[in-house]
Design the sequence.
């Protein structure tokens, strides 16, 4: 187990993890990560969190695009700080700087792919074929390889050659058509979600699909090309909105913070803040009415069922808003919790990261890079008591592991590596600071 694990602790409640921490259920699997930005790097980070060895291949001198997507930047004294964005999807990885646009670099990557279990890339469809790093070429070399491509539109179809970005996919998938203030209200118009959800959803689908492909390989010995597209992933997650159209025929519209099916399920203004009310059953609605001393609403036949509340939502929500307005937010939320009515605050990111529930669940972690620089990260979100996620390697400096990986994985000697460096095929990170920390 890597010595970095000894440095780990939960950020707000110090909990040290020892070098003997469980390695994870994917220990023994090797992942070759040719991806950058977010969707695919998230998938490989999840595999790494669950114990797989992940080798991230980056462009010398530049690396993953997100290393420069700042400010803010994490200052480490190197003169080449990495942007905060990079740290959200690149822990538990080793960084190898190889220019595979050069034939010698492509040959190194092919040799590494020959010994890998999984390869993940997110180049445009067909982009890696000219380097001999496409799925067909590498599956001939290694028939057991799980080769996962993450693109905007997939390997087939009329849009296959296009580049895809989260913002474009949010619009093209219909997500933005149901996100934002309703027509006629101030600020009305389509709105993207405040996080790159199309990237994130695709990263999760890629991970699930890779694990399914591994199960298939266990049974048959066969690898395969896993084809993940941002548009497909986002369309699949239109969920109830798409089904409302397929079953009911109406085109879903923007409702702001209201729910297309469930009422009351939206934000309301109290005397000092906004709160969320989410009544998912008739019983919860009646409990809310009792709490607000509006038994008349609970007794009104129009509002007895969710279907009725949905049909007459405007009338009902006006009355609820009147009853909620005099309350202070904290007092009403406490009373709702006591009464069994689901509700909550609208937290800022700073508040979320100080929330006692978030802290208690171990969602904040502190890691240390190879030079000793501390970085706080968001943890893996699932509790696996028999095979927990681990935090072995902080997001790496560009090329910090080039020498070690080429020696360990390919058996290259010092002279061979130096020759590759001089030819510009690989780059080696300055290890002097790391050596001083040892």
Sequence:
């Amino acid at each position: 187990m890597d010595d970095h694990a000894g440095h780990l602790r939960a950020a707000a409640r110090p909990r040290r993890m020892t070098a003997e921490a469980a390695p994870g259920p994917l220990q023994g699997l090797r992942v070759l990560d040719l991806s950058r930005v977010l969707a695919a790097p998230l998938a490989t980070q999840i595999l790494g969190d669950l114990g797989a060895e992940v080798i991230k291949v980056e462009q010398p001198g530049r690396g993953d695009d997100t290393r420069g997507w700042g400010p803010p930047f994490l200052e480490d004294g190197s003169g080449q700080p990495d942007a905060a964005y990079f740290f959200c999807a690149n822990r538990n990885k080793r960084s190898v700087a190889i220019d595979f646009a050069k034939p010698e670099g492509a040959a190194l990557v092919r040799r590494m792919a020959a010994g890998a279990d999984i390869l993940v890339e997110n180049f445009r469809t067909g982009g890696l074929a000219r380097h001999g790093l496409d799925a067909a070429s590498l599956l001939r070399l290694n028939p057991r390889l799980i080769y996962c491509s993450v693109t905007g539109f997939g390997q087939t179809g009329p849009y296959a050659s296009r580049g895809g970005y989260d913002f474009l996919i949010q619009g093209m998938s219909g997500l933005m058509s149901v996100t934002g203030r309703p027509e006629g209200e101030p600020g009305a118009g389509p709105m993207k979600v405040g996080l790159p959800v199309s990237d994130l959803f695709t990263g999760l689908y890629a991970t699930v699909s890779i694990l399914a492909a591994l199960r298939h390989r266990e049974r048959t010995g066969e690898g395969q090309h896993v084809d993940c597209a941002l548009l497909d992933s986002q369309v699949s997650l239109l969920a109830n909105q798409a089904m409302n159209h397929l079953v009911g025929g109406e085109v879903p519209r923007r409702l702001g913070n209201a729910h297309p099916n469930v009422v009351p399920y939206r934000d309301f203004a109290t005397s000092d803040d906004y709160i969320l009310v989410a009544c998912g059953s008739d019983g919860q609605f009646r409990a809310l009415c009792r709490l607000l001393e509006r038994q008349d609403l609970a007794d009104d036949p129009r509002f007895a069922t969710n279907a009725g509340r949905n049909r007459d939502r405007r009338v009902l929500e006006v009355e609820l808003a009147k009853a909620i307005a005099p309350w202070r937010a904290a007092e009403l939320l406490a009373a709702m919790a006591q009464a069994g009515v689901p509700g909550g605050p609208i937290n800022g990111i700073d508040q979320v990261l100080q929330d006692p529930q978030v802290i208690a669940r171990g969602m904040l972690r502190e890691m240390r890079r190879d030079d000793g620089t501390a970085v706080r990260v968001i943890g893996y979100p699932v509790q696996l008591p028999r095979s927990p996620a681990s935090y072995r390697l902080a997001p790496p400096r560009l090329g910090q592991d080039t020498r070690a990986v080429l020696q360990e994985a390919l058996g290259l000697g010092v002279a061979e590596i130096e020759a590759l460096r001089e030819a510009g095929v690989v780059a080696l990170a300055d290890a002097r600071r790391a050596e001083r920390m040892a």
About this structure: The CA atoms of residues 179 and 193 lie 7 Å apart.
